[in-house]
Amino acid sequence: MKIVKVSGDVTIKRTVDGGTEAQRETVKEIIANVRSNGDDALKAYTEKFDSVMLEALQVEQEEIKEAYQHVDSKLVEIIKEAAANIRSYHEKQLRPSWLTTEENGTILGQKVTPLDSVGVYVPGGTAAYPSSVLMNVIPAKVAGVKRIVMVSPPGEDGSIPAGVLVAADLAGVKEIYKVGGAQAIAALAYGTKTIAPVDKITGPGNIYVALAKREVFGDVDIDMIAGPSEIAVLADDTAKADEVAADLLSQAEHDVRASSVLVTPSMALAEAVQREVEVQCAALPRREIAEQSIRDFGAIYVAANMEEVVETVNQLAPEHLEIMTANGMELLGKIRHAGAIFIGRYSSEPVGDYFAGPNHVLPTNGTARFSSPLSVDDFQKKSSIISYSEQALRDNGSKIAEFARLEGLEAHARAVESRLKKQ
Amino acid sequence: MKIVKVSGDVTIKRTVDGGTEAQRETVKEIIANVRSNGDDALKAYTEKFDSVMLEALQVEQEEIKEAYQHVDSKLVEIIKEAAANIRSYHEKQLRPSWLTTEENGTILGQKVTPLDSVGVYVPGGTAAYPSSVLMNVIPAKVAGVKRIVMVSPPGEDGSIPAGVLVAADLAGVKEIYKVGGAQAIAALAYGTKTIAPVDKITGPGNIYVALAKREVFGDVDIDMIAGPSEIAVLADDTAKADEVAADLLSQAEHDVRASSVLVTPSMALAEAVQREVEVQCAALPRREIAEQSIRDFGAIYVAANMEEVVETVNQLAPEHLEIMTANGMELLGKIRHAGAIFIGRYSSEPVGDYFAGPNHVLPTNGTARFSSPLSVDDFQKKSSIISYSEQALRDNGSKIAEFARLEGLEAHARAVESRLKKQ
C-alpha cells in the first residue's frame, strides 16, 4: 500500500462504470420488449439469463416458510435484532406534517405523505445480501409505504437464496418476484400483468440494472446509482495499526475497484499500517480481490498536521469515514462531507454495515458533497399547503397582483383581483 | 375547453421536451469547450448567443446599486415582503442534527450539513423572473450554504434585468455572473478561472440549459428538470365559475404547453366555467398563448361523485392543486399527490407563486407521486453517526461477525474480532 505525502488537493482515485454503447442498447431493447410483451418477456429473459424456466414469477408463501428451514435459527435471531435496530434508527428520521396559523386566517404548512409503492432490487448469486434487503425495505416500511415489492433473479433451481427470503419476510415484504436484470427494472417501472408498476425503485445491481434504472428515471424515481465502496480512516498515533489495517481490508475485499484510504499525521502509524495490511491480506479468503483493490485504489496519505488531515478527508468526501484519534467526537464538527462517520476504535465499519441501525446505502464517488444516506425521506414526499382567508387576500392581494404585472403575467393579476372586486 | 366525463383512469396530457440529437450534441460540445478554454469560451459563446462582447463576466457592486434606480420603490418593498415570507416559511423546514445515547455507551445520530456551494440559473429575456430568484436562493441561504452563485445571460446591452439583480441582492447573493445557456452550466459544474465550481445547480432554463444540467449531473447535483406548468382545480358547486376560470387561465398564459384542468362532480359548474374561460381568455394580453394551451392541454373532468373527483386528482398528481369546495380542509387527508395544495377560494395560485412563502418550484409531469417542492432539504445533506463503546462491541461483536460470514465477507468479521480478541 503506497504512502503519499499530502500536498495540495487530494482526490480518491475512483472508477465509474458508465456501461458500453452495446450494453445501453441491450438495456433499451429489453425495456421495450418487457413493455410490449409483459410477463412473457420476463420469463423468456429469465430462461436466457438465469437458465431457468419459471411457471410462476411470484414467490409463494410456502417457499418463504421453507426458507426458514435453511437458515440457522441463531442467524434468524441476529437478523431480527439487526432489523429491530435499523427500524429504531429510521423511526427517528420520521417528520410530522406541520401547519402554521396567523391571526388574519392564513394557514401555511407542509404535508408529508409516503409514496404509494416501492420496488426493491436484490442482486442474485454471491451478491444476494440479506443486509441489503433490510437496509432498503425497512426505511420504506417506516415511511409508511403501503406496497413494497421485491425482485431478485432466481438461481438455476428457480429459487431465491434462503437468507434473502428470510430477511424480506422479517422486514415485512409481502410481494416477491423471481426476476432480475434490466427486465426486472422494466417490469417495476411499467408493470406487467403479474407485476403492478411502482413509483420508485431502489437497491443495488450490476451494470445492466444500473443502466435500466437510469433509463426509467423520470417515469419513476430511483435511488442513487452506487459506485464501488470506499473507506477513509482518519487516525492519529493513538490508533492500533492492526485494527486500521483490518478495517481497510474489510472494504478492499468487496471489489477490486473498492477504495481504502488512510489519512494520518503520523508517519509511524502509516508505516505500521502498511506492514499490517500486507500481513493480514495474505491470510484472507478473498485475498486476490483485496490485494488488487489495495494496489489499484488504496493509499496512505500522510499530512503535516491534523488540520490538513481533516481538509484532506473533506476533499475525499468518502462513503465511510472512520475516526480513530484521541478524541474523535471533537472532530465531528469539522467533517463536512462523509456518508457515514464511525467514531472511535470500537466502531469498525462492519458495525454499521449490518447491525447498529443507520443505513448502509451511502453516497459513493465523492457525492457525499451533496447526497445523503438512504433514509425515510427517500420514501416520503412533501406537499406545500396554502390557505388564505378573505382578510389575508384583502391585505395582500394588490401586492401580489403588482408582482405578477412586474413579470408580465396579467392573468395572474386578474385571478387575484377576481376575488377582490367582489363584496 | 372540452368537458369530459370521467370513466376509469385519467391522466393529464403532457409533453416532455427531451431535446433533439443535434441539441444534445451541441450541448456536449459547449461543455467540452468550456472545460478546455474556460473564460475565453464563456465570452465567445456570450458574443455568439447573446450578441454582446463582455470585458468582465462578474456583475459589479455598482451595477446592483444602479438596478435599484430602475425598479419602482413600492415594488422593491413588495419584493422585500415576499422575501421575508419565503424566508419565514423555509426556516420552518430546518431540521437539527440529532444524537441518541444508550447506557452501554452506544451513540447513534444524524448530522445535517449545508452544501458548500450552490449555483442558481436565472433565464434571460421575458423569462427573467425575480420571483424565481427568491424561490431558488432563499432556501439555500436558510440551509446555511456559504457560497451562492447566480448566473444569467446578459441582454444585448450587457446588463441583467434590474428586477432580477434587486431580487438577488435582497435574497443575499454576493456573486453574479453574466453568462447563460449550456456554457453557464458547464462553468458552474467544472469551474473556470473566474467562476469557481459549485456542488449543486438549480433553477429553470431553456432546452439547452436542461440538457446541460442532465449532462453534468453526477459530477454535481441538480434540482429537478421542470416540465410545463400545470394546475388542477378541484371544485364543487359552491365554487364561483369566474374565479375558477381566472385561475385556469393564469396557468394557461404561461406557456402553450401548460396544462389547466378542472375536476368537479358538478356539470353546472363545468358548463359555467367553460363559458367563463372563453369570455375571459378573449380579454387577455397573452390571449394567443392561453387559447392554444387551453385547447391543447386543458380539460374539464366531470366525475360521478366527490370520491371519484379525489381519485382523479390523485391520478393526475398535479403540480398545483386548488381545492374550492364547501370545506376544503376536510379533503386534505385524501390528497396523496400534489406539489402544492391551495385551499379555499381566496387561495388563488398566484398567492403561492409570489408571496405566501412556500416554494413555487414544484414537481411537474406527475412526479408529485414521488417528488417534493424545492426546500431547505435540497441544500443540506445528512451523514450518519455511529459510535460504539467497548462494551457495545463486546455485547454485539460476535453477532456482527456471524452476519458478515453469512454474506461471505471474512475480512469484515475479522475487523470486528481484531478488537474483541484483545483485553
Automatic annotation (TrEMBL), chains A, B:
Q: Which domain of life is it from?
A: Bacteria
Which amino acids does the record list as binding NAD(+)?
121, 183, 206
Q: What is its EC number?
A: 1.1.1.23
User: Can you provide one Gene Ontology molecular function annotated for this UniProt record?
Assistant: NAD binding
Alphabetically sorted, this entry's keywords are: Amino-acid biosynthesis, Histidine biosynthesis, Metal-binding, NAD, Oxidoreductase, Zinc
Catalytic residues per the record? 319 (proton acceptor), 320 (proton acceptor)
Cofactor(s) listed in the protein's UniProt record: Zn(2+)
Gene3D superfamilies xrefs: 1.20.5.1300, Nitrogenase molybdenum iron protein domain (3.40.50.1980)
- Recite the UniProt cofactor note for this protein: Binds 1 zinc ion per subunit.
Record-level GO cellular component terms: cytosol
Binding positions for substrate per the UniProt entry:
229, 251, 254, 320, 353, 407, 412
InterPro entries annotated for this entry?
Ald_DH/histidinol_DH, Histidinol_DH_CS, Histidinol_DH_monofunct, Hstdl_DH
Q: Which GO terms describe its biological process?
A: L-histidine biosynthetic process
Quick check: keyword Plastid in the entry?
no
Task: Give residues annotated as binding Zn(2+).
Answer: 251, 254, 353, 412
Q: What class of enzyme is it?
A: oxidoreductase
| Pathway involvement of the protein, from the record | Amino-acid biosynthesis; L-histidine biosynthesis; L-histidine from 5-phospho-alpha-D-ribose 1-diphosphate: step 9/9
Q: Write down the chemical reaction(s) this protein catalyses.
A: L-histidinol + 2 NAD(+) + H2O = L-histidine + 2 NADH + 3 H(+)
Per the UniProt record, one Pfam family is Histidinol_dh
Protein family per UniProt: Belongs to the histidinol dehydrogenase family.
Function of the protein: Catalyzes the sequential NAD-dependent oxidations of L-histidinol to L-histidinaldehyde and then to L-histidine.
Q: What is this protein called?
A: Histidinol dehydrogenase
Gene (name only):
hisD
